[in-house]
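Posting for a labmate who doesn't have an account.
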Amino acid sequence: MKITRENLREAVDNKIISSEQADELTAFLTAQPDTGPFFDFTHVLYYLGGLIAIGAMTLFMNLGWESFGGWGIFFIALLYAAVGLKLTQYFQAQAYPVPAGICATFVVALTPLAIYGLQQALGFWPDDTVYRAYHRYIKWHWLYLELGTLAAGAIIAWRYRYPFLLMPVAVTLWYLSMDLSAMIVGGRADFELRALVSMYFGLLMILLAFWVDLRSRTTADYAFWLYIFGVMAFWGGLSSQHSDSELSKFIYFSINIFMLGVGVLLIRRVFVIFGALGSCFYLEHLASSVFKDSWLFPITLTAIGLLIIYLGILWQKNEALITHKARSFLPSELKALLELKGA
């Protein structure tokens, strides 16, 4: 949690620390370098400006750029990348990690544009698709752009080590999962195949995020964006599966309940949010289809809800004991990760 002056005043009022210690601790925390993002006006401006710049060269790219031709697009992208790297080094030297990370991320986001321009210039582009379609349509030949972006992202993330750099990497992995499905069938993949590939690829991304989480547990949160897009891809693919079997729907509900538990264990809200959504979808299915004419179903559901609240009270009373016993069965690395997160 973020410690505020109000927290310290309450600690003084409760005689946990003295007023002198509170003043010394405030001075110490204020002197620490700004190492991560917070939801304040300064950081909102940082990310708003950065996302506008990134969006201008990705999502909002218009057809006017096509008039520059392949070589023009390629060299303009290189010029922008050089400016981005220069700003990254400048902000890093000035101890502004958030702007430095945003500028480095801007460079990674330019990679697919540079590769597109180079392929156009060399005559390797397979059809008349333009770059702006990269973020809108699924095509197998985007794979070159995606693999190049992953390579550039890995190199720049290894060089600068800012967590925000994993955002374009995570997005690209998500794109890659969809374009791979198109390549597998030799063209535009049908909806069922895309959902299946997305689900399994999302699961792999979640496992990758967990591995990164373990490896970087004592540094910055490098796994954040991998978890975000991994869960989105997995849950989206899972929720898009079609089945008329009530057993399959119950398994879907059970997976979402499991996601809730994982989110609580790892302190990752994205699991909790999507797990709760999936659980609600299943309960809505029961209410509208299975028990649509039953007057007892709402009463039973209310009782279950109250029971869960009571279980929450029991958990709060015995959390320390349960947590200690549960962690005794966990691997040492996972135990260390949870202790650092304060779980």
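Reply:
Got it, the structure tokens are right above this. The two ends are 12 Å apart (CA to CA).
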